[in-house]
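User: quick one, fold this
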Amino acid sequence: MKFKSRGGEHEELTLNVTALTDVAFLIIIFFMFSTHFHRTQLRPMDLPKEQGAEAVESALPLVIEIDQQGGLSIAGGGPTELATIAASIRGNAATAGQGGKPEIVIRADRRAAAVHLNRLSSELAKLGIRDWKLATAPAG
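Assistant:
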């Protein structure tokens, strides 16, 4: 096959990256807002003031909250019964790491009676979950 040349003129190939830049900025903005939204789902709570360990970023944990009156909720949602939380944990166990046990973080108001935390930890133990974390606020 023979191509005809245009007498030495070469057509210059240009690539318009404006659309790619727009898409990149939209993706960045989406992830910034979605990360911030995840953090704002948690209710403001007076957590125990302890040193604690640094939070390690991992897969999204199941966050269970105990308010001052002992009410339970999952990740800032409405009031939830203990049986509903147990069913949610069983449902998450199939998709969780660590041998089928989800990572659980408990956010308990420091003015809540310890009996509420004990009741929750007993239910977790019945489900075979003995490793969970208690969220704390920095001391001071």
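User: anything notable?
Assistant: The mean pLDDT is 77.
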